Amino acid sequence: MKYTYTPRGVCSRMIQLEIEDDVIKDCRFIGGCHGNTQGISALVKGMDVDEAIEKLEGIDCAGRGTSCPDQLAKALRAAQDA
Questions:
Q1: Less CB within 10 Å around the terminal CB: N or C of the chain?
Q2: CA-to-CA distance for 14 and 6, rounded, in angstroms?
Q3: Which among 30, 16, 36 is positioned nearest to 79, based on CA atoms?
Q4: Are 8 and 71 contacting, i.e. CB atoms less than 8 angstroms apart?
Q5: What is the rounded radius of gyration, in angstroms, for the C-alpha atoms of the chain?
């Protein structure tokens, strides 16, 4: 399943996901801190969706109340509900 999510409160403008059998096959951020979002994407590829959510949810960036990793967790939850 391919899923696109529009993050809120962060620099990235879009998160594109490909999930198969509850495993993250691909993750791409559009916008944001390029090196950091590439690193996050590389780390979650092959990871179980629930494990990624558990690790990333609640991470804060500069007091914004969210971050690109937190928004990825929200995107993964939304994809599960889709």
A1: C
A2: 5
A3: 16
A4: yes
A5: 11
